[in-house]
Specification:
Helix content: 25-40%
CATH class of the largest domain: Alpha Beta
Strand content: 25-35%
CATH topology of the largest domain: Quinone Oxidoreductase, Chain A, domain 1
Order of helices and strands: EEEHEEEHEHEHHEHEHEEHEHEHEHE
Number of helices: 11
Bound molecules: zinc ion
Distance between the termini: 10 Å
Radius of gyration: 20 Å
Shape: globular
Number of domains: 2
Largest sheet: 7 strands, mixed
C-alpha cells in the first residue's frame, strides 16, 4: 500500500509498505478520508514529541473496514469513523474521570492515516471507533478527532447563550470552537486573527470577526476567551480580554520549554479562571460525534479541498504558508 512517511522535519516521502494484518480485536480500515491537522504541521515544521520520525503520520480518518481480527467489534464493509487513541479506563486518572490524562493514552495511539490502509489497535477499535451514518460524508466524519478536543474544552465550561466569547486564532480549532459555540446557542462569538481568508470562514460559521490589530481590551471584557494559537505571546495577552470573573481557555500547546507570565492581581482579584485542556476522554468523543451527526451542524467551510498522497509535501508547504485550512487526502 502507499503511505506518507514523515522522515524528519521538512521531509515527507510517499512509500510502498506492506498492508498490515489485523490480529485479535484489531480492525483494518481502508482509509476514505484523512484530514490534515495543526499537530501534523507542527511535526513537519519542527518535530513533535508525540510523533516519532521516521514514521507514518496523520491521525484524523474515516473509512471502510477491510479486514478484522478475531472478536473485533466491526465487520468487513462497515463504514466507520473514529479517533486515534483510547483511554485504558483502569488507571488513576481514568478512574477519576480524567480519561484525557490516562497514563497510556499517548503511548497507545495510532498514527498513519495518510495511507491506503490503517490498522486500528484493539483498545481503540473497542472504545473509540463507531459506525459512520450514511448521511455523514467521509470527509466530515474524519473531523471527529479535532472536534473531540474542542468538545473536551467545552465540557469543562458552563456555556451560556448570553455569553460574549472571544476566540483568538482562526485556525481549524478556533473555527471549530466558533461552530460548536454557535451550535450551543451562544449569541456573540468574536473571532480574532490576521489571516483574512480564515476570518471569512469564521464569518460563514456565524462569528463576528476582527483583525488582531483592531483587538483592544474594551468595556467589561469577554465572559470567555479561548486562545487557539499556541503562541506564548497570545497566551499572555489573552487574559487582558477577560472580564472580572471570566474564564480563559489556553488551548493551543506552545513549543516545549517555553513559559508564560500573568498579572497575578488580575488572576486573583478579578478571579479569572484559567483552563488548559489537553486531548479528550470518551465522553467528549461522543459529544463531538453527536454534533457531527446533526444536519444543522456544518463544518464544510473548513475543508480546503481534496489532495492525492503524491502531493503530501506540497500540502504541508501550503499549510505552512497559511494557504488553506484543512486538506483531505483520499488515498
Ligand atoms: Zn488532529
Ligand atoms: Zn487510563
Amino acid at each position: 500500500m502507499r503511505a506518507l512517511i514523515l522522515e524528519e522535519p521538512g521531509s515527507i516521502r510517499l512509500q510502498e509498505t506492506a498492508i498490515p494484518r489485523p490480529s485479535t480485536g484489531e480492525v483494518l480500515i481502508r482509509v476514505k478520508a484523512a484530514t490534515t491537522c495543526g499537530t501534523d504541521l507542527k511535526a513537519y515544521l519542527r518535530g513533535h514529541p508525540q510523533i516519532p520520525m521516521p514514521g507514518g503520520f496523520g491521525h484524523e480518518y474515516s473509512g471502510v473496514v477491510a479486514a478484522v481480527g478475531e472478536g473485533a467489534p466491526f465487520a468487513v464493509g462497515d463504514a466507520v469513523m473514529g479517533v486515534h487513541s483510547a483511554p485504558c479506563q483502569t488507571c488513576f486518572w481514568c478512574l477519576r474521570g480524567q480519561e484525557n490524562l490516562c497514563e497510556s493514552i499517548m503511548a497507545t495511539k495510532v498514527l498513519g492515516s495518510y495511507a491506503e490502509y490503517l490498522l486500528i489497535p484493539e483498545r481503540i477499535a473497542r472504545i473509540n471507533v463507531f459506525p459512520k451514518p450514511a448521511a455523514l460524508s467521509f470527509e466530515m466524519a474524519a473531523l471527529l478527532e479535532p472536534l473531540s478536543c474542542v468538545a473536551q474544552a467545552i465540557e469543562l465550561l458552563r456555556v451560556d447563550a448570553n455569553d460574549r466569547v472571544l476566540i483568538m486564532g482562526p485556525g481549524a480549532i478556533g473555527l471549530m470552537f466558533v461552530a460548536a459555540l454557535k451550535h450551543l446557542g451562544v449569541g456573540e462569538v468574536v473571532l480574532a486573527g490576521r489571516n483574512s481568508a480564515r476570518l471569512e470562514v469564521g464569518e460563514r460559521l456565524g462569528a463576528r470577526t476582527l483583525y488582531n490589530g483592531d483587538l483592544q481590551p474594551e468595556g467589561r471584557g469577554y465572559d470567555l476567551v479561548v486562545e487557539c494559537t499556541g503562541s506564548v505571546e497570545i497566551w499572555e495577552r489573552s487574559l487582558s480580554f477577560s472580564r472580572r470573573g471570566g474564564t480563559v481557555v489556553l488551548f493551543g500547546g506552545c513549543p516545549s520549554g517555553t513559559s508564560a507570565s500573568f498579572d497575578t492581581r488580575r488572576v486573583h482579584y478579578d478571579q479569572i479562571s484559567l483552563l488548559s485542556p489537553f486531548h479528550f476522554g470518551t465522553s467528549a468523543v461522543r459529544t463531538a460525534r453527536r454534533w457531527l451527526m446533526d444536519p444543522n451542524f456544518d463544518l464544510s467551510p473548513l475543508l480546503s479541498g481534496t489532495r492525492e498522497l503524491e502531493d503530501g509535501e506540497q500540502v504541508f508547504r501550503d499549510l505552512r504558508d497559511g494557504v488553506g485550512l484543512k486538506y483531505v487526502f483520499q488515498p
